[in-house]
């Protein structure tokens, strides 16, 4: 090698390194990460210093302390003697309760209305579109307050509660309905119900296999439904068919016994469901319309019935368009449930607010509810992504 | 309604602003002098204490903020009000959104310590009571087992309520709504059997918000002590001194018989050395506080003494007599530390 050559070799490594793509991207990433880290470190340090100088308590020790405030409704056992951690858990379960029921109802209602808007029937289409345009264009918070006001001021006082059916009472304290009185049979009926569902799933697998092998169609839907109903019914008969009811009755200030839907929960569920339904209906409509009309025509020319065309041809293809935006709507409904605080439903934000106020630990409180909402959202996303993958067309 | 809309986000945003703002303790006095007004946190709507009618804030708590403004800036109008719900109030003060919290707030140990507040005094001695519809046929709080009870979240009221029912071995269903006007509306609509808050708040709801006040009664039990007073940030000693002595000056003025009517006459003609010191005829007190020597004169001439403020706001509007809020010389609890 000539000296000239070796000289250029001395310079080149740095230059090549500078122009190297991998090296550059690593450096940039380190710089950005370092910048974000330093900023975070500064903010946390500054916060701690400020909290310290104002003598504000910090840390998560408060979770162990007695909450000492009451919560109106709870899925898990709670009393003012419980600690703050438990109170927040009540908030989380209340959020999950309203979100999960809301998601199920909004999906069913949204699918029906979405199909209605592409229906050939003029009236159905008109009702669907009117519903969507009305409820989609009013802010959901106003809808919540509207429903709460309707329940509070529109429904009669508890002493003159409406009773459309014996034992069912509707007043501005909520809806009370009779439920089955405690009896060991009901646990077994529940077990029978689960067995019935498993049976129906096995039946469906078997009938599909037979369809592929022989071409014979087995009505697995109606027979499966029969199994789901029949098994618990038989169990109920075996246990002597208990019919004793726990009927709500007015005792002192309130109804005692039976099951109850509080005005706050009802207003929140109504508002969230009716609002999210409009978006889901639009998602379903666009999904159905994304399937080329030729598919329907081809299916028709093969002699399939129109319900079958919807179920076997259109919906499976529409689903892969529907599922990703549907996930968004599920997340929106869950996050919108935090508006509960406006109408006094004890959801996570409402309980956190009270906790923050009684303990003064706002930073910790906000951190907790942000983490919980993030976790719920990520879980819903994971599940829907998995479902989406299962539902996507297999390319051959 | 808009206030409610922002309530959740406000708590979150405020706590984040603790992150960034960097509240400097002890600098509120300089900041107030610089900007030329006081930012005062008050109740969203509680007739008698702080209520905006016709765009003008009025009430006992509002008067206190006006008095502080008069003392510091010589102008009782140099106040900007921030309406806060119970849940928002402490974060608003901690984060520096307001300089002073004058929002019928109970002085407790936890708030004075762990929440990083300093209470400057007591401007109303209160206690928690219960209000019910008369046709409910209840005459004592001990008969309330199983009742649905409307209450504001994040208050001592909420805690006392749970304590009281636990101690009595009774059940209750709390209906927790954040905004004062919304919670009273829910009670009047019949959502709850009982509304509980400080006795003054009950009187305010009954006399001002109820369609027919005669339909409602306040039960005889008072289940707690609720000393209500103004609070400032911990470590803000200079400002706390000014707030504390503003309140004391208002009470002391009533004791001396100085009113907004006769304050000029008293300043020029009184031979009482106490009055002369208070009104700045004999200088010294203003300098000690780091404000104008006319501070107390400005308070009394522009806002009035404690008795005048109580009379216009509480007695006339809510029909509540002085009771334990009378001067100590009349057998009450209002006792100013000597202004000298």
Q: Topology, please?
A:
The complex is a heterodimer of chains A (396) and B (340).
Chain A: H1 3-19, H2 21-53, H3 84-117, H4 122-136, H5 140-154, E1 169-171, E2 174-177, E3 179-180, H6 184-214, H7 220-238, E4 245-246, E5 249-251, E6 254-256, E7 259-261, H8 263-290, H9 293-301, H10 306-336, H11 348-359, H12 362-391
Antiparallel strand pairs in A: 1-2, 2-7, 3-4, 5-6
Chain B: H1 2-21, H2 28-35, E1 38-43, E2 51-53, E3 56-58, H3 60-73, E4 79-84, H4 86-94, E5 100-106, H5 109-112, E6 117-119, E7 124-126, E8 128-133, E9 147-151, H6 156-168, E10 172-176, H7 180-188, E11 194-198, H8 199-209, E12 216-218, E13 226-233, H9 237-256, H10 263-269, H11 273-278, H12 285-289, H13 295-302, H14 306-318
Parallel strand pairs in B: 1-4, 1-5, 9-10, 9-11
Antiparallel strand pairs in B: 2-3, 5-13, 6-13, 7-13, 8-11, 8-12
Helix pairs in contact in B: 1-4, 3-9, 3-13, 9-13
What does this structure look like?
The complex is a heterodimer of chains A (396) and B (340). Chain A is mainly alpha-helical and 396 residues long. Chain A is globular, with a radius of gyration of 29 Å. Chain A folds into 3 domains: 3-53; 84-181 and 244-391, MetI-like fold, CATH 1.10.3720; 182-243. In chain A, the strands form 3 sheets. Chain A has a 3-stranded antiparallel beta sheet. In chain A, strands 3-4 form a two-stranded antiparallel sheet. Chain A has helices spanning 3-19, 21-53, 84-117, 122-136, 140-154, 184-214, 220-238, 263-290, 293-301, 306-336, 348-359, 362-391, and strands at 169-171, 174-177, 179-180, 245-246, 249-251, 254-256, 259-261. In chain A, β5 (249-251) and β6 (254-256) form a beta hairpin. In chain A, α3 runs antiparallel to α11. Chain A has 12 helices and 7 strands. Chain B has 340 residues and is α/β, with parallel strands linked by helices. Chain B has 2 domains: 34-125 and 227-320, Periplasmic binding protein-like II (D-Maltodextrin-Binding Protein, domain 2, 3-Layer(aba) Sandwich), CATH 3.40.190.10; 128-224, D-Maltodextrin-Binding Protein, domain 2 (3-Layer(aba) Sandwich). Chain B is 43% helix and 19% strand. In chain B, strands 1, 4, 5, 6, 7 and 13 form a 6-stranded mixed beta sheet that branches. In chain B, α1 (2-21) runs parallel beside α4, α3 packs antiparallel against α13 (295-302) and α9 crosses α13 (295-302). The interface between A and B is large, with 52 and 60 residues.
